[in-house]
């Protein structure tokens, strides 16, 4: 119940991919994955910062950790 507003809010506000990627069967625990794509690293960093702020400010949940992983593709 707490997860759906966060996921839907991120999808609608930023038009990004968000999914529950682990702990689907665990009670009161989840892990979200967010995918951001851009040709400009500064745009991605700003967007990731905004997404993190939204998640940290979410009511009725406790954020334990946020990890960022970057994938760069050579052209």
Describe the structure.
This protein is 37% helix and 15% strand. With 75 residues, it is α+β, with helices and mostly antiparallel strands. The protein is built from 2 helices and 2 strands. The mean pLDDT is 86. It has helices spanning 3-14, 41-56; strands at residues 17-22, 31-35. The relative contact order is 0.18.
Short account of what is shown:
This protein is of the alpha+beta class. It contains two helices and two strands, in the order αββα.
Descriptors:
75 residues; alpha+beta; two-stranded antiparallel ribbon; 2 helices; 37% helix
In helices, the fraction of residues equals 25-40%
Quickly count the helices: 2
Major sheet characteristics: 2 strands, antiparallel
The total tally of domains equals: 1
- What characteristic shape results from the CA principal axes? globular
Evaluate the radius of gyration. 13 Å
Structural class: alpha+beta
Order of helices and strands: HEEH
Report the end-to-end length measured between terminal Cα atoms: 42 Å
Going across the biggest sheet, name each strand in turn. Answer: 1-2
Low-confidence blocks of residues? none
Can you count the beta strands? 2
Q: Indicate the proportion of strand residues.
A: 5-15%
What is the arithmetic mean of pLDDT? 86
């Amino acid at each position: 119940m707490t997860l759906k507003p966060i996921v839907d809010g991120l999808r609608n506000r930023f038009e990004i991919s968000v999914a529950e990627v682990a702990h689907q069967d665990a009670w009161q625990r989840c892990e979200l994955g967010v995918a951001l794509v851009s040709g400009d690293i500064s745009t991605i960093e700003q967007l990731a910062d905004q997404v993190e702020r939204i998640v940290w400010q979410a009511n009725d949940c406790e954020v334990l950790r946020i990890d960022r992983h970057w994938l760069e593709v050579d052209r």
